[in-house]
Amino acid sequence: MVTKRLMTLFIAFMISGFAFGQNVDQKTTERTQRTPEEMAKASTDRLSQRLQLSADQQKEVYALTLEQAKKAEERKELNRTRMEEMLKERDAQQEKLKSILTPEQLKTFDESRASARNNNRRTDRFRRGSNMANRRSMDDNHSMNNKRDSIRNEQPRRK
User: Fold this and answer.
1) 98 and 106 in contact (C-beta within 8 Å)?
2) Residue range(s) defining the domain that contains residue 115
3) Which residue of 38, 40, 73, 83 could cross-link 66, Cys pair, CB 3.0 to 4.6 Å?
């Protein structure tokens, strides 16, 4: 009887976990494919809802967030270009290093790089998961900080 309940709970937990994981992937994909205009509109809509902005304020906020989104897109492209340059430099350095090392040293070097890559992949998976959890709870943390600050402001200061 108890094992049937445990199995049912376990299965329900697993199903909910899979469903939750799929929603996160969809949100992440949607977020990365938006244009600066779409991001500015979404940001303006959120602020308008939260703060009941007037039509004039919405136009100003849209212009501000659009400008910021375009700058972010430019930085993203610049970072992509820099990364490509760094990879080319790294590849050139690797080729020079290969010409310097003996075959035994090269084998040891390649094995250590493969081991390091595998270790990085394992830790990246954990980091990505924790970052997603952090992003989801940022609004919650922000509201908790505001509550904490308001409580602190209400309390008389000790001397």
Assistant:
1) yes
2) 101-143
3) 40
Above 80 in pLDDT, residue 157? no
pLDDT digits (tens, 9 = 90+) for 108-129: 988 888 888 887 776 655 665 5
Identity at 100, one-letter amino acid code: I
Whether the pLDDT of residue 90 is over 60: the answer is yes
CA–CA gap between residue 25 and residue 128 (Å, rounded):
11
Instruction: Give backbone dihedrals phi and psi of 34, rounded to 5 degrees, phi first.
Output: -85, 145
Q: For residue 19, tell me if it sits in a domain.
A: no
Reported pTM: 0.42
